[in-house]
């Protein structure tokens, strides 16, 4: 019986998920001609099957390498645990908490930093309780893991809250010992409540370039509001994460 491209995609999908292909193929599918010979079909059917797997995010066609199999996310992106006060009080910043939970090393230079005084857009202004266009500090970071960009995160602050603190320093890496949350705590604005929202979408062309994303890879957008125990919003942040690098995990007590 001659198989069609959907049936072939199903066979290849099962092989990928069962781990048949990673060795000795060096994380690539066999060549199209070899698959065509194995299943006694034409190369066009193989191409259509591979395109289907590409649309599902299982493989990526890379010039001179072939059809590369996408590996599971390299890191666990912690939920509430990444913000634990005992971590930033002891000098562990949020992105480093993810690395440590995943058994990976990190360096200060893994995070770039750009700080500007800008006019608040509608979303940032609403989150911080300011009129649109009000001046805010924008702190944009790009984070890398072993040389590859994993995500970017941009935080917005009221100028009167962070003026003169390490949060407005342009130096690469986290904002001082323990990162931004430790800085806020040191000036009497200790983070106590965080609200995060997440959704996925396809990346913009700029995001594809900045995060070095292969074709067809979605991003996870995170929006975060951080407030003190008294309810004062002290930070609004927007992040764009490559779905190739993270598995999101949350552990929490179920409310009554």
Automatic annotation (TrEMBL):
Q: Name one GO molecular function term.
A: DNA binding
Report keywords, A-Z.
Answer: DNA-binding, Transcription, Transcription regulation
Q: Name one GO biological process term.
A: negative regulation of DNA-templated transcription
Domain HTH gntR-type as annotated: residue spans:
2-72
Q: Which domain of life is it from?
A: Bacteria
**Pfam families in the record:** GntR, UTRA
What is this protein's name? GntR family transcriptional regulator
């Amino acid at each position: 019986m001659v198989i069609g491209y959907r049936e072939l995609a199903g066979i290849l999908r099962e092989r990928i998920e069962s781990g048949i292909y990673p060795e000795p193929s060096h994380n690539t599918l066999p060549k199209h001609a070899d698959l065509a010979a194995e299943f006694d079909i034409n190369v066009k059917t193989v191409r259509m099957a591979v395109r289907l797997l590409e649309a599902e995010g299982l493989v990526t066609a890379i010039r001179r390498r072939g059809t590369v199999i996408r590996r599971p996310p390299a890191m666990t992106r912690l939920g509430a645990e990444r913000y634990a006060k005992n971590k930033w009080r002891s000098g562990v910043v949020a992105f480093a908490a993810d690395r440590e939970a995943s058994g990976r090393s990190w360096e200060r230079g893994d995070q770039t930093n750009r700080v500007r005084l800008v006019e608040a857009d509608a979303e940032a202004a609403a989150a911080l309780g300011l009129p649109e266009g009000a001046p805010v500090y924008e702190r944009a970071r790009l984070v890398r893991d072993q040389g590859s960009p994993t995500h970017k995160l941009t935080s917005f602050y009221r100028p009167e809250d962070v003026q003169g603190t390490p949060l407005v320093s342009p130096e690469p890496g986290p904002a001082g010992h323990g990162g931004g949350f430790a800085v806020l705590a040191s000036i009497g604005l200790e983070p106590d409540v965080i609200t995060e929202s997440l959704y996925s979408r396809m990346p913009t062309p700029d995001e594809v370039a900045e995060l070095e994303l292969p074709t067809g890879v979605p991003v996870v957008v995170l929006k975060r509001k951080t407030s003190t125990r008294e309810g004062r919003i002290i930070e609004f942040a927007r992040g764009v994460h490559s779905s190739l690098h993270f598995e999101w995990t949350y552990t929490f007590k179920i409310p009554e």
